[in-house]
Amino acid sequence: MYRIGELAKAFEIKSDTLRFYEKQGLLAPSSRSSSGYRMYTEQDKQTLSFILRAKAVGFSLADIKSLLSIEVDKANSVCADVKALVNAKLTDIEVKMAELTRFHISLQRLADACCGSAKSAEHCTVLEALESDVDQVRHEHHH
Amino acid sequence: MYRIGELAKAFEIKSDTLRFYEKQGLLAPSSRSSSGYRMYTEQDKQTLSFILRAKAVGFSLADIKSLLSIEVDKANSVCADVKALVNAKLTDIEVKMAELTRFHISLQRLADACCGSAKSAEHCTVLEALESDVDQVRHEHHH
DNA sequence: ATAAACCTTGGATATAGGTCTAAGGTCAAG
DNA sequence: CTTGACCTTAGACCTATATCCAAGGTTTAT
């Protein structure tokens, strides 16, 4: 069992953030101590880990809540519903990854065009990388 | 040359957003009409495309500004500086992609464990997927 | 030549996601 | 048995990223 400050420290967030997540319906401590302190279990800790990882990959707290609600409602959920929700999130992730890949290619092209030495950056600009990218997009559209 | 509303419509954003980006130092129109209208060039349009793509992959406006500043300062920049900045952003992207991949694997495991039929979701919960994930992480740490 | 649809500026409002403050209760160490 | 680190609540405040509004000037279509 962890007190709020311990759990916060373990994940390098503020206690306030945990209280905020609780108010948002994302993560409530499994119990309270006799003096009213929030007491978090190992499972709560895992849920928090999930929340933070999901946030890190760009999901909103609302998205995360909907994923976690599977857990809360599991007796009332049916597999098909769960699967549909999860598959939707998987598609979101795939879209994000495709965008990241495209952006990575653009920046990589910029880095490659760049001399890397102490000469002027006259010919290594974001705009030049973008221009080639636009060309590439046009090219793709042609077939 | 595009007027603000034309450019906004082309990217499905509001004119307000373009004025906002200008105030933030991200994108100023290349010129103004005699009556003071913002006039955007093809290059401005490309810069906007860059801004929106960068935003879509999770960069903040501040991050994007630092990338664009390469362009503005290019006469005063040296390739090495540009390359270092771009490489830092490339690393950011690689980290994001690794996180997305890991998250995708977790959710995929959940979807796979899920029957997909109209039975109770008793055994397809985010937490169960997480538990296996934690095990996997522990496993990785062991070698 | 006038309405619709633009544009201008400056400032108010909104939403997400926290972060901090005030006023006070609890707990472990010296 | 007090000091300092923790905890409680309610609510104010903050940053990022827009979006909207007011009051007025300009352009385009009819």
From TrEMBL, chains A, B:
InterPro entries: DNA-bd_dom_put_sf, MerR-type_HTH_dom, MerR_fam, ZntR
GO biological process: DNA-templated transcription
A Pfam family per the record: MerR_1
Record field: transmembrane: none
Keywords associated with the record: DNA-binding
Keyword flag DNA-binding: yes
Keyword Nucleus attached: no
GO molecular function: DNA binding; DNA-binding transcription factor activity; zinc ion binding
Database matches in SUPFAM superfamilies: Putative DNA-binding domain
Domain HTH merR-type: 1-70
Superkingdom to which the source organism belongs: Bacteria
Protein name as it appears in the record: Zn(2+)-responsive transcriptional regulator
Organism lineage: Bacteria, Pseudomonadati, Pseudomonadota, Gammaproteobacteria, Oceanospirillales
